[in-house]
Structure formats: C-alpha cells, structure tokens
C-alpha cells in the first residue's frame, strides 16, 4: 500500500469513527428523553416531536407528554450536549496552545473567573450588559493572569502554569465567596447554582444563545485548526513555519475562553470535561487537531449527557452534575499525573 493510499485509509477510518460518535450521541439523546420519573416510550417521543416541529397529527399523546418531552427534557438534553462539546473543545485548545497536558478551563482559572463574573452580573445587573458578557470578561482576565504569572523569561513552565492557575482560581473563588456573603437570599441561591453546576433551568431561549456562540467559535477553530497544530510544536518551530505564535495564541485563547464563559454563565462550573475528553480523543485518533476538535467535542457531548441523565435518575433528589463529572475526573487526573510525571518535571 502506498503512502497516499494509507493516508486515504486513515482519513476514511476517522470519518467513519466521527459518524459512529454522532450515532452514539443520537442514541444517548433518545435514551435520555425516555428516562426519568415520568417514563415515556420512543413512539410517543416521535409523535411529540412530529407535532411540535412539523405540526403533524399525533394521537395517543397527552399534554403531559408534550410538556415533559419538548418543554423540559429536550432543551436540557440539547444544552448538555452543546455544553459538553464546547468545554471539550476549550480544553483541547488550551492544551495545544500552552503545550500542557493538564490544562483545562477549571485548572487554568477560566471557570472560576467566569463564576465571579456571573456573580457580579447578578449583583450589579444594571452595570453589566449581561451575565454572559460579565462572565467572559472575568474569565479572560483569569486566563491571562495565570499565563502572565507563569511566564518567566519568555518561557511558560508546565508546573508554573498549573500553580498560577490554582492561585488565580483560588483568588477568584474567594471573590465569589465574598459576594455570596454580602448578597441577598435570592441572589445567594442563584450564585450557589453557578458554583455547583447543573442543567436544571435549561430553556429553549438560553439554548439559542449557547448554540450560536458555540457554533461560531467551533467554525473559527475548525478553520484555524491546522495553525493550532503548528502552535503545539512550540513557538520557535511555529515561527519557522511562517505563523506568529503570540497572535494566534491570543486568538485561540479568546475563543476558548468565550466558549467556557458562555457555558459557565448558563449552567455553572462543570469541571474535568475539558481535561479528560481531549486526551481520550488523542488516544483514539492521534494528535491532529483537525480531528481532535470534533472528536473530543462529540465525546464531551456524550459524556456530559450521560452524567446529567445519571444525575437526575439515580436518586429521588437530583444530584448536581458537577459532582458526577468530578467523581470520574479526579481519578483520571491522578492517572494522568502518574503517566506524565517525567514530562511534568522537565
């Protein structure tokens, strides 16, 4: 087999895998629609969607079926899939830009910054344009503070970046605690929701905003993914190949931070997805970011959808989904630290 034929074969296998993940995501979405305190069959789901989306005649469905499927579960399931997709892509971009396998929105302080911005947006609603805009500004500030603190003589060491991310994240988390302490009861409940992470209040209106931001960001990332490959080689090699690393790092970090802030502003802090899924994607299809971005995104969508379905079905009282993602993510970080020990100590 020639090199050209091998390349075509690899492309075909990755393309087939991408379609396979889309099919898995569709199956998970149908299962999530069926599961819950109010059980509902596939035939009723099809009837409700036909009625709501295409105004088709439907028999045998009640008003409760329509409310549960279309008004409650459908926006929540779509939100979970989009949020999982976005956080995975943000993690993949951060890891490639900083050439650091441990970077993700939560560790880098982006999530804590977005939570502080969202808290300010709640308390001073008249001062900021929106909660999302406030979350984005503070999230971006947190990422650049982490990067600036870690930068020493033009080099950003791995351990330094992690420590600076922990420091900045702690400072912003302390800021959220102060705001919680001085806020009124209603504001306190809303801020606490962001800190715990959850998809309880997913609505069609918010879904449109999240989808628009994530779709535009992913389109730009996909168009520039080959430059992300060059950045992951290091600044010197990127310069020798004709791109300005600082300029493109800025673009990628802003896009990844915008995706993170949009997610946090709508569903709160959900950690670990941005750390785990890019690694799983690279393990499955290699380091090429042209494929890592969509594969990691789909894996993240499937993962968060499964976690959210478990969160609302395994007990009578719903568990915040951030707790479930953390239960899986923490052991994964331990394994990653042990496997990458030599690389981190360089």
What radius of gyration results from the CA coordinates?
A: 21 Å
* Quaternary state of the chains: single chain
Structural class: mainly alpha
- State the helical fraction: over 70%
Strand content: under 5%
Average pLDDT confidence is: 84
The major pleated sheet works out as:
none
- Basic shape: globular
Number of helices: 15
Element pattern in H and E:
HHHHHHHHHHHHHHH
Poorly predicted tracts of residues: none
Distance between the termini: 39 Å
How many extended strands?
A: 0
Any key phrases for this structure?
346 residues; mainly alpha
Write structural notes for this entry.
- This protein is mainly alpha-helical and about 350 residues long.
- The radius of gyration is 21 Å and the shape is globular.
- It has 15 helices and no strands.
- Helices cover about 80% and strands about 0% of the residues.
- The model has no long low-confidence stretch (mean pLDDT about 85).
């Amino acid at each position: 087999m020639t090199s050209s034929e091998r390349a075509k074969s690899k492309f075909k296998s990755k393309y087939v895998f991408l379609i396979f993940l889309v099919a898995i995501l569709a199956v998970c979405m149908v299962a999530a629609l069926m599961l819950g305190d109010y059980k509902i069959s596939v035939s009723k789901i099809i009837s409700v969607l036909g009625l709501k989306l295409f105004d088709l005649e439907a028999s045998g469905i009640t008003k409760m079926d329509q409310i549960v499927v279309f008004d409650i579960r459908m926006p929540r399931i779509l939100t979970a899939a989009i949020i999982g997709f976005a956080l995975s892509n943000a993690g993949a971009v951060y890891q490639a830009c900083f050439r650091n396998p441990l970077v993700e929105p939560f560790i880098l302080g982006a999530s804590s910054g977005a939570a502080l911005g969202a808290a300010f947006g709640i308390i001073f609603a008249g001062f900021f344009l929106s909660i999302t805009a406030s979350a984005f500004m503070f999230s971006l500030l947190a990422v650049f503070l982490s990067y600036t603190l870690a930068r020493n003589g033009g080099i950003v060491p791995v351990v330094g970046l992690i420590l600076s991310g922990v420091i900045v994240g702690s400072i912003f988390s302390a800021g959220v605690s102060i705001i919680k302490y001085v806020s009124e009861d209603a504001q306190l409940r809303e801020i606490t929701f962001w800190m715990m992470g959850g998809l309880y209040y997913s609505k069609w209106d918010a879904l449109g905003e999240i989808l628009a931001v994530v779709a535009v960001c992913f389109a730009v990332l996909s168009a520039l993914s080959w430059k992300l490959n060059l950045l992951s080689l290091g600044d010197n090699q990127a310069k020798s190949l004709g791109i300005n690393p600082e300029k493109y790092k800025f673009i990628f970090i802003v896009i990844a931070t915008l995706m993170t802030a949009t997610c946090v502003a709508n569903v709160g802090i959900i950690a670990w997805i941005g750390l785990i899924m890019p690694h799983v994607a690279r393990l499955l299809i290699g380091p090429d970011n042209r494929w890592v971005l969509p594969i990691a995104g789909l894996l993240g969508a499937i993962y968060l959808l499964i976690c959210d379905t478990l969160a609302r079905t395994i007990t009578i009282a719903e568990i915040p989904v951030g707790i479930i993602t953390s239960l899986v993510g923490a052991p994964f970080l331990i394994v990653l630290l042990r496997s990458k020990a030599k690389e981190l100590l360089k």
